[in-house]
Amino acid sequence: MDESHQSDPLRRARLRWRARRGLLENDLIFERFFSKYEQQLSDADVAALTRLLELSDNELMDLLLARTEPEGDLATPDVVRLLQMLRNV
Residue 15: exposed, middle, or buried by beta-carbon count in 10 A (0-12, 13-18, 19+)? Predict the structure, then answer.
């Protein structure tokens, strides 16, 4: 098995719970994302997703809908790649 795969089901469940947002639009995107990618997430993906989930609902929605792009310390290759995955579900 790929060592970078996030195999801890409890950690993935906590992440999925944390992804529940106040805005329905965000919830729908995350539900589709987890349905498609949950079993494939690596530790780097989980870390990037955790960083995105630290944003406010409105900031996150702007990123998900490509109204804005990640800036500063959020603009890491892992966050940008994960954001593309979220935008494409």
Answer: buried
Its pTM stands at: 0.76
Paired tokens of 6: 């996030």
CA-CA distance, 17 to 88, in Å (whole number)? 21
Which range, of 16-20, 24-28, 47-51, averages the lowest pLDDT? 16-20
Q: What is the DSSP code (8-state) at residue 62?
A: H
Ordered domains of the chain (ranges, CATH) = 9-87 (1.10.150.250)
Per-residue pLDDT band at 3 (split at 50, 70, 90):
very low
Query: What angle (nearest 5°) sits at the alpha carbon of residue 50, between those of residues 13 and 38?
Result: 40
Cα–Cα distance, 29 to 84 (Å, whole number): 12
